[in-house]
Amino acid sequence: MDQRYRIAVEDWIEFEEEQHQVTGLTGALVRLRSISGHHQTIMLSVLLTDSSFRALAAPPERADNATAGLDPGGVLATLKNKQARDDAMELEAHLYEATTGYRSGSSFEAEPGEPRPQYHPDLLLTDRVAAKAAELDLTERRVWQLIEEWEEKGLWGLVDGRKARLKNPLRNIDERVITAIREQAAAERLDSSSSVSTRFRRRCQNRLDEDYGSGTVPLPKPDTFRRAVKLLLHRSPSDPAYQRISDANQPDRTFGNVIAHRPGQVVMLDTTPLDVLAYDPAMNDTYNVELTIAIDVATRSILAWRLTPLGTKAIDIGLLLADVMTPEPMRPEWADALRYQMLRVPFERHLSVDERLAEAAARPVVYPETLLYDHGKPYKSDVVKRACRKWRIDLQDARKLKPTDKPHVERLFGTIREQFSMHVAGYKGFNTAHRGKNVEQQARWTLDEIAEFFAEYVVAVYQNQHHSGLHLHGFPDLHVSPNEAYAMALGSAGYVDCPRDPNLYYELLPIADNGRAIHSYGVELNYLIYNEDVLYQFRRAKSPYDNGQWPIRYDPRNLLHAYFHNPRDVTWYTLRWTKALSDLQPFTDITLREAKRLVELRGGDPKDKDYQEQIAEALWDLQNRTDAPETWTKTDRKRHTRDRHRAQAQAQDEARSNPAVPATAPPPRPVAETARPTVSALHAVPDLPGEDDDFDPFSIQPAEVWNPHTS
Questions:
Q1: Residues 365/357, Cβ–Cβ less than 8 Å
Q2: 67 versus 567: which is more confidently predicted?
Q3: Are strands 39-43 and 475-479 parallel, antiparallel or unpaired?
Q4: What does the H/E/C string look like for 332-346?
Q5: Which class for 484: exposed (0-12), middle (13-18), buried (19 or more C-beta within 10 A)?
Q6: Rounded CA gap, 245 and 250, in Å?
Q7: Given a cut of 70, is residue 301 above it in pLDDT?
Q8: In this structure, what DSSP letter does residue 516 have?
C-alpha cells in the first residue's frame, strides 16, 4: 500500500525502535535527535523506506532525563556504578585506536606492538572503523555513531545509559506537594518539634486543601511522604527545636567577613549562660551563671570576662569595657611563666608607659576601636553608650537574631564548653538533652571560685594554645597562639596606651532620670530617700546643670547607697538610704521591684508618707524569709544569692576607683527592753557548789549534718 508522510521540523517519529524528533531538513537530508539526546543525519529516502520507520501523530511524553542540566564530567565522576565507567573508558581506548591507530591516542605513548596492522595510521579511516566494528562485533553504522557521540559529549557519550541511569526519587511526587512541604516547614520553623507522620502531615494536607480545594491534591502514602520530607528539608520537623531555630536564624548568604589587622580594631562582645551550676554554701543551693566575654578579632585573644548570676546588668557591660583596658592581676599561686613579661613584647618599654603591667598576667591589654555586639538590652543602655562616647569607641550592633554576624565569639563559646565547662564539677550540658540526672548534687564550686578557675584557664591555656583559625597576614601556613599573634601584631601596629581614670567606676554608673532636686530631707530615687551631711549645703539650691537638677548616680546591684559628685571639692560622696539599718543586707533593683509589688498588694501608695517604712518592712520580710530554713523557696534562695554576689561585685568594682567619702553609719536597730523576773527561777536539780547553770544557748556547737556538697 502506498503511504504518504509529511515530515516537518519538530515532528516526532519512531526509527530503529527509538523515538526521534526532527531538528532540521536540508534538501534530501534529515537531522534527527533521539529522545535520549543522540543526534544523527540520514537521507530522507532511506528514512522513509526503512522498515522501522513510524510516524507519530502526537509527541511522546517527556522522558525524565535526570542528567539534564548537569555537568557530564561531574556525573561521570560521581557514578556509583564503577563498572559502567570502566566500560566507557575501555570503549574510548578502542575508538582512539580506530581513529589514530593507538589506544592512548598518541604515538608518543604507544604500547608494545602498536600500531597493529589493521589500524595503521596510513590506512583509510573507513578501513580502520570497519576493522574495529568486526573486532567489537558491532555494525559499522554503530561505530560511526559512537565516534560522533564521543566527539560531541566526550567520555560521557560512551557510558551505557542502562547502567548509569540517575534516579530522581521525587519524580512521581506532585510539585504542589513539594511546595506545600517547604512552605509548611518554613511556617513552623520556630514551633515545637512534631512528628512527620501526624501533625506535620495533617497541616500540609490542610494547606493543600486551602490552596487548591478539598481533596484536589492528596498527599502520598505516609512512608513516601516521610522520605520526601527527608529529601526536601535540611531539618526534619521532628528534630530538636533549638536546632531548627538555629538554622532558621542563619542568613542565606555571606554578606561579608569581619577583618581586623591590628589589636583592638574590632572587639566582639556577647553574653551566654555558662554550662556550669554554681553552688551557694549559705543557701545550700545551686544557681545558673552567665558569662559575658570580649574577644579581639585580630588576635582571637580573650580580653575580659565577667561571671554573674543569671541576668547581666548594663553596669556589668560598662565595667567589662574597663576590664579590657585594665591588666589582669597575677594571682599569688600562679607560676611566673604566666606573667605579662612572658608575652615576648618590649616589656620594659611598656612598663614605662603603664606601671600596672609590673604585676599583670599574660593577657593582652588593648584600646578597643570598634565594639560589635548583639541586640541585648544591657548592650544598648546609656551606660555602654556613655562609656564608649567617653573613650571614643565606635559602636556597631549585629542584626537581631543573627548570631552569624558574630561568628568569632559564638565559636569561642563552643571552645569554652569543650575545654573548660565540661571539666568543672556541676557541668549541666548546653541543653536538657545533654544534662545528667544529679547535676545539682555534683556542683561544688562557688561563683567566685569558678571565676578564678576561668581566669587561670584563659591565661594559662587558651592564650597559649595554637588556634587553627588564626592566621597572620602574609603567613597563611603559620599557626600561632593568641599571645603570639598579639606580640607579632604589636611589631606592626604598635602599642596604644589605655586610658586610666581613678573615678571611672562612678562615671559609668547610671544617672537618675532627669536628675533630682535636693530637698530638706535629702534626695528621692526609686521612691527611696537618700541623705548625707554633704547635701545640707545644696538643699533647695538650683544646680549649675542645664535643667537645674542634680545628677544622682546609683548602682543597680546595690541600692543601699547612691553617689553624689560635689562640684566644690570635686569629690564623690556616698549617700545612704535613710531606712537602711545596720543589719539590713544589700539588695538589687530586682529585689526592690519585688518589695514594691508586695507593698502594692497590701494597698500601699507611693504618695503615702509611710511608703518608705512599708518598703523597708517588705525588704525586711523578704530577707527574713530567706534566713528561715523552713520557709525557703527556690525564688527566695535565688534572690538571696543574687543580691549577695552582686553586692560583692559592686564593692570590688568600687575598690578599683578612688574611694568615695563614705556615708555615716546607720543608727543601731532598737532592741525592746525585757522585764526582769520578780521571782527566782525554778530548778529541777539543785545547784552544784561552784557552778552556774545560767549558760548562753548560742555558745553550743550544733551537731554536724551530712551535706553531699561538702562531704
A1: yes
A2: 567
A3: unpaired
A4: CCCCHHHEHHHHCCC
A5: buried
A6: 9
A7: yes
A8: B
